[in-house]
Amino acid sequence: MTATLNTPPVFLLFGPTGAGKTDLILELAEKLPIDIVSVDSAMVYRGMNIGTGKPPADVLARHPHHLVDILDPSQSYSAGQFVRDARAVISESHRNGRLPVLVGGTMLYFRALRWGLADMPAANPEVRAALDAEASEIGWHGMHAKLAAIDPIASARIQPNDAQRIQRALEVHRISGRTLTELHAAAPPVEGNFVAYAWVPTDREKLYANIETRFHRMISDGFLAEVAALHSRADLHTDLPSIRSVGYRQLWEHLSGQALLETAVQNAIFATRHLARRQLIWLRAEREVHWVDALESSARAQIERAMTQCVQR
User: Which residue intervals of 121-237 are DSSP H helices?
Assistant: First the structure.
């Protein structure tokens, strides 16, 4: 990442799910001239509101969030698309004399924006067929173990049951002879004056308790009915990124008769905790990030002070 002289700053606020990033940014939006840009691979979808923690409509009307509700759940969204969309919003925000603040937990998007996208080989049907054949013999957990042996950093970010991402990581290695981690490290430099802060509760058990409480609140707020509306659509299925989102996938399984509701809820809570752990793994690998303990009494003041300094530049 390179920053030219007098380049306006871009404020990044990332952290694990359930850490309270949305409440923090809405509080600061009342005080500072900022434009909020969502960095969330699930909030991009319309009709996925409760389970993504999307602010209610009246709040979004008061404090618009860019890159929210821009796609139908039947569509896919990539890191490359995010970078293009985010850069357009950042440019507009700077033209208007405001501070773009990117907030969320999709770490791949943050990394692509800050450090660039690696030059990845195109998909190869023959290699994919070979990987599918291997997976049919040893399962995707076994394939995940193979990935861990060649690229432990990437495997730590990919769930053992995420067949699509495991296959892609192994495919890239077989085609190029290089791991995803190596290719990402070799990405071309990106111009931008990024000021990055991690909003992370240091007490892991409090984070997990908040995740559980929040999920039960989502259920009370009608999350199951939200997933049922998606489930009733003939064009949606579990191979889509939207439906694979944490919480949606588990409730979809319940609605498909694969799990009792109580089991689906517990599976969703477990999966959300696992997501938080993966996000923290990503964060620990990030460079040039200021860490703030979200549980400290001075935490909000630290973020407000840093953001104010950016506004004044």
Answer: 125-150, 152-157, 163-176, 180-185, 204-220, 223-231
Residue 12: its H or E element: strand 9-14
**CB neighbours (10 Å) of residue 125?**
7
Residue found under tokens 């299925």? 237
CA–CA dist 82, 39 (Å, integer): 8
Euclidean distance between CA atoms 10 and 187, whole angstroms: 20
DSSP secondary structure, 214-273, as one string: HHHHHHHTTHHHHHHHHHT-TT--TTSTTTTSTTHHHHHHHHTTSS-HHHHHHHHHHHHH
Q: What is the pLDDT of residue 164?
A: 85
Provide φ and ψ at 35, rounded to 5°.
-110, 125
Whether 219 shows a pLDDT value over 60: the answer reads yes
Domain 125-185 listed as CATH 1.10.20.140: yes
Joined together, the tokens standing for residue 175 give: 């085609």
65-66 and 9-14 strand pairing? unpaired
Q: What pLDDT score was predicted for residue 7?
A: 86
Closest CA to 227 of 203, 246, 200: 246
C-alpha distances (whole Å) from 139 to each of 214, 238, 239 are 33, 18, 17
Spell out the domain ranges in the chain.
Answer: 9-117+187-312, 125-185
> What is this structure's pTM?
0.82
The CATH number, out of the four listed (3.40.309.10, 3.40.50.300, 3.30.1660.10, 2.60.40.1120), of the domain defined by the range 9-117+187-312: 3.40.50.300
